[in-house]
Amino acid sequence: MKRLSKIFCALLCLTLALSVAACAQPHQGETGDDYEVNIDLDPEITATLRISCEASNDEQRIVQYLADGFNKYYPNVTIEIDPMSGDLVSTLMGYWGAGTMPDIFQISSFNMLNLQDVGIILNLDPYIRAETEAGTFDVSEYYEDFWGLGQKDFDGSQLMIPRAADQVVCHYNAKIIKEASDWCGVDLEGTYIKNGWTWDDFLTVCSYLRDFYDATNRSNNYLLDGFLDWEAVFNPILKSFGVEYFDEEGNCLIDSQGTREALELIKNIIDLRYHGRFSGSQANFAGGQGVFMFHSQDATTQIKNLAIANYMDYEDMDENYYNLVTFPIINEEDPQIGCGVSGYAVSSDSENRDVAWAFLKFMVSREGQNCIADSGKNYPPIRKDMADPKDPENHWGLGLECYNLEAFTWASNHDAISPTIFITARPQRATDMLDAIGVMIGNYVDIGYTLDQAIARGQASLEYWMEN
Q1: 257-271 helix and 430-442 helix, angle to the nearest 10 degrees
Q2: DSSP class of residue 313?
Q3: For the CA atoms of 173, 175, 177, 181, what is the dihedral angle to 10 degrees?
C-alpha cells in the first residue's frame, strides 16, 4: 500500500505540475534542431548562468568546482547554484509553469524520459554538429552506452549530457572478509573476489561468511545490501537469463522461463539468509555490519562510512578495511552489469544557451572531469581516455591507489554494460514500469505470492502502463 500511495502521489504531483505548465507557461522554448548556435564565444562574455541541481552538499560542491574551472576561461560569467529538493520532475515542471526555469538543470536518464516530450529540454544536436564540424568535439571520446542514456528514447537527439559513467559495483568490507578467512582457513579475497568473478564465486564466499556470522553470534545479521528491487540491479539479473520485456509490437514478454529463473536466484539468497527480506532488516553495510553492497555510489562515500563505523580517520583507511569488485557475473557468455546516469540539460527557453552549452562541454572535458573528482567524488569519468584510475593525470583515482577502482570501468571495457532500455517502449511511464518490476520481485521473494501469481501481476501492471 505504501508503494501504491507513493506512485499515486507522484502521479498527482506530475499531473498538477503539467496543469500549471499548460495554464501558466509564459513562452515557448526552442524545441527544434535547426536553431542558430555560437560555439566561438568571446572569453570576456558577460552572462549569468543559473544551474539547478540536487540539494545535496555533494552535488552543489561538484557544480561549484566545475564553475571555478569554467571561470578560468570565462571570468565574467556568474554562476548561481539553485538547489532542488523533492521530486525533480515536479520541481522542474513547476519552474516551467512559473516561467522561472534555470539555464541548466540536473536530471537522471529516467527523469529525462518523463520530460523529453514536454518541451522544456533543449535539443543539443545543433551544438554537437557545429562542434564536430569545427573539430572541437568528438562524441567517440565518450562511452557510447552511457552517452546514449542522455538521448531521446536512449537512441536519438542529445537532450542531456551525462556527468559520469555510473555503473553498479560490489562494495565490500575487507576487514570482515579477512576475519572470516582467518576463521575458515580460506583466503576468500585472494581466491574468489576479483574483477569478473562469477555468481557462483559470490555464493561460495557468502556460504563461508554465513557460517562465520552464525558461529560468532551474528545469526540475525545479513551479509548483503543488494538493492534487489532497483532497476540497476534487477535488470542485469533478468537480462542474464535472457529476459525480454516487450517485443517490437509492444507485447509484454515478462512471463517467461528466464523471469522464473531470475526470481528464483533472488529468492535463493534471501532463503539462505545472505540478504534480508525487503520488508525486514538490512545488512547495514554503511554501518560496518554487512559485508557486501551492490551499488553505483562512489568509493569515497563508502570509505567515509566505514571509517566512522571503525572509529577511524578517513586518512587511516586502506584496503584492509574496504575495497570493491565488479558486480558478480551470472552468465559468463553474456555478462550483464547495471548502469544509469545523472547529468545536466539546458532549458529550451534559456537566453544563455550558448554559454550553457560551453559549460556542459567543459564538464565532460578532461579538466572538467577532474574538477568533479577534485570536489571529493570519485565517479568514473564518462571519457574513455580517463579509464585508468592509476594514471595520476586522472584525478578520480588520486589518493585511492590502494583500492580496486578498476571495478568501475571493467564493465565498459568488457562489453558488459546493461542499460535499462526496456522502458523506452513507453517512455512517459518509465518510472511506473520500473516500479512494476520491483513490485513483482517483492511479491514473490518477500510478500509470499506464488511465482505464477507474482509474474501475472507484474505482466498486468506492465501492460496497463503501456496503454495508460
Answers
A1: 60
A2: -
A3: 180
Three-state SS sequence of 189-209: HHHCCCCCCEHHHHHHHHHHH
Look up residue 461 and give its three cell numbers: 501492471
- The gap from C-alpha 342 to its chain's centroid, in whole angstroms, comes to 6
- Report the CATH fold assignment for 23-165+341-412: D-Maltodextrin-Binding Protein; domain 2 (3.40.190)
Cα 318 to Cα 312: distance, rounded to the nearest angstrom: 11
The 8-class DSSP code of residue 446 comes to I
Q: Which of 345, 326, 344 is nearest to 336 (CA)?
A: 326
How far, in Å, CA of 386 to CA of 380, rounded? Answer: 8
Measure the CA–CA gap between 170 and 1, rounded to whole angstroms: 31
Nearest to 461 by CA among 252, 229, 278, 266: 252
- Which residues have a Cβ under 8 Å from the Cβ of 185 and sit 6 or more positions away? none
| Average pLDDT for the chain | 92
**Cα(319)–Cα(189) distance, integer angstroms:** 11
Mean pLDDT of 212-232: 97
Domain ranges in the chain are 23-165+341-412, 169-226+275-338, 421-467
By percentage, how much of the chain surpasses pLDDT 90?
88
For 339, which DSSP code?
Answer: B
Taking the C-alpha atoms of residue 336 and residue 318, their distance in angstroms, rounded to an integer, is 29
Phi-psi region of 288 (alpha: psi -120 to 50; beta: other; left: phi over 0): left
| Of 326, 347, 348, residue with least CA distance to 335 | 326
Task: Evaluate whether 345 touches 112 at the Cβ level (below 8 Å).
Answer: yes
Query: What are the tens digits of pLDDT across the range 231-279?
Result: 999 999 999 999 999 999 999 999 999 999 999 999 999 999 999 998 8
* Stated pTM of the model: 0.91
Contact 119, 348 (CB under 8 A): yes
With contact defined as beta carbons under 8 Å apart, do 141 and 384 qualify?
A: yes
Amino acid at 460: A
- The pLDDT value recorded for residue 31 is 73
pLDDT tens profile 140-170: 999 999 999 999 999 999 999 999 999 999 9
Q: Is the dihedral of CA 126, 130, 133, 138 positive or negative?
A: negative
Cβ atoms within 10 A of the Cβ of 190, count?
A: 10
Q: Are 153 and 467 in contact (CB under 8 A)?
A: no
Strand bridging mode 322-326 / 169-173: antiparallel
Model confidence at 16, pLDDT cuts 50, 70, 90, reads: very low
**Inter-helix orientation angle 199-215/257-271, to 10°:** 20
